[in-house]
From TrEMBL:
Protein name (Swiss-Prot/TrEMBL): Chaperone protein DnaJ
Residues annotated to bind Zn(2+) 2: 190, 193, 212, 215
HAMAP family membership: DnaJ
Predominant location: cytoplasm
Domain observations: The J domain is necessary and sufficient to stimulate DnaK ATPase activity. Zinc center 1 plays an important role in the autonomous, DnaK-independent chaperone activity of DnaJ. Zinc center 2 is essential for interaction with DnaK and for DnaJ activity.
GO biological process: one example: protein refolding
Biological function: Participates actively in the response to hyperosmotic and heat shock by preventing the aggregation of stress-denatured proteins and by disaggregating proteins, also in an autonomous, DnaK-independent fashion. Unfolded proteins bind initially to DnaJ; upon interaction with the DnaJ-bound protein, DnaK hydrolyzes its bound ATP, resulting in the formation of a stable complex. GrpE releases ADP from DnaK; ATP binding to DnaK triggers the release of the substrate protein, thus completing the reaction cycle.
CXXCXGXG motif repeat residue intervals: 173-180, 190-197, 212-219, 226-233
Zn finger (CR-type) start-end: 160-238
Gene name tied to this protein: dnaJ
């Protein structure tokens, strides 16, 4: 939709309110219309969909005090013929002067960014996202970011691993190398717009800029399109990417591969690839941040008398000294034998000792245990002393 069409459109009429309506009146009118016309409430109703877009566009302008002021001023000046230069020495209204630029209202604001109202509804009605002009579908643009997922064993994630990923996605055409032109030929600069992709025209006192019809807004013309990609510079291909997963990656973490996403259209840069990491739980190890956790079964006698345990690590085994009189559930720390983290080194290995009670004893063991319990009692040891008021 051109700038002139925006100005000529009566947003107040779309919402059924007067030009002097308050912000609350505008909000109330919009909510009622949006509820009645929403696509979810009117499936497969093209008229309702178009009406919904119209009232949403109207609300987007009238609900913003600054945009509403600019819109009202633009309509007033347009109705009075105040746009454009007057006779030499006259004081006609000049868009862009005095702090008001009509382009700010309809997109093409500061920096040339596509921020106009025409981009608001792209996601809802599949007309392309913000920053993409629907009037020029073949304009060179950056490729989309892609996402994929890979599942790693616990130790692979902890130590790091290289994994291959097989993807099918739009890629730069290998025949024309992304130019869109048949091999041996090249796109030429559009003579109508001089490569800008935009042409200007005047209607009375008004000047308008629109996508060039000759090149469809691309700024170039392909006389002999590539037969494989039909001039887009992009084809679907299956590829295998080798991904180096760094040591210490955790479940749910994302790895970004710059430039490995969807190919850009007509030679524009490719998007990025984001790899979601899923980590399988391990039968032996657990994880707490950069610390590796481990529970080791021990006997009662080993805790009472003390011992040295041989426990596994990610890259071998290590001896862990259990002091005499260690209580059940105590955590013993082994420095630097946890999850690798560069360049700081590695986390720690946290070993929890857990008493394992025998389910069956032979007669000599039973007699020995009875003798021990009698000696324990004679020594004055009471495991429940002071417990529950005892």
């Amino acid at each position: 939709m051109s700038q002139r069409e925006w100005i000529e459109k009566d947003f107040y009429k779309e919402l059924g309110v007067s030009s002097t309506a308050t912000a609350d009146e505008i909000k109330k009118a919009y909510r009622k219309l949006a509820r009645d016309l929403h696509p979810d409430a009117n499936p497969d109703d093209a008229k309702a969909e178009e009406r919904f877009k119209s009232v949403s566009e109207a609300h987007a302008v009238l609900s913003d005090p600054d945009k509403r002021k600019e819109y009202d001023e633009a309509r007033r000046l347009f109705a009075s013929g105040g746009f454009g230069p007057r006779a030499q020495g006259g004081g006609g209204f000049n868009p862009g002067a005095g702090g008001f630029d009509i382009n700010d209202l309809f997109g093409g604001g500061a920096g040339g960014q596509d921020s106009g109202l025409g981009d608001i509804f792209g996601g809802l009605f599949n007309r392309g996202g913000a920053g993409q002009r629907t009037a020029a579908p073949n304009r060179p643009r950056r490729g989309k970011d892609l996402e994929t997922e890979t599942t790693l064993a616990f130790r692979e994630a902890a130590l790091g691993v290289t994994v291959p990923l097989r993807l099918t996605s739009p890629m730069s055409c290998t025949t024309c190398h992304g130019s869109g032109a048949k091999p041996g030929t090249s796109p030429r600069v559009c003579p109508h717009c001089n490569g800008t992709g935009v042409v200007s025209r005047n209607q009375g006192a008004f000047g308008f800029s629109e996508p060039c019809d000759d090149c469809r807004g691309t700024g170039s013309i392909i006389d002999s399109p590539c037969e494989d990609c039909h001039g887009s510079g992009v084809t679907n291909r299956t590829r295998t990417i080798t991904v180096r997963v760094p040591a210490g990656v955790s479940d749910g973490q994302k790895i970004r591969l710059k430039g490995k996403g969807e190919a850009g259209l007509r030679g524009a840069p490719a998007g990025d690839l984001f790899v979601n990491i899923r980590v399988k739980p391990d039968n032996v190890f657990g994880r707490n941040g950069d610390d590796l956790t481990l529970t080791v079964p021990v006997s009662y006698g080993e805790l009472v008398l003390g011992t040295t345990l041989s426990v596994p690590t990610l890259d071998g085994r290590v001896g862990v000294k259990v002091p005499a009189g260690t209580v059940d559930g105590r955590i013993l720390r082994v420095r630097g034998r946890g999850i690798p983290k560069r360049p700081e080194g590695a986390g720690d290995l946290l070993v929890t000792v857990k008493v394992s009670v025998p389910q069956k004893l032979d007669d000599p063991a039973i007699e020995a245990l009875k003798t021990y319990l009698e000696a324990e009692k004679a020594s004055g040891f009471d495991p429940r002393a002071g417990w529950a008021g005892a």
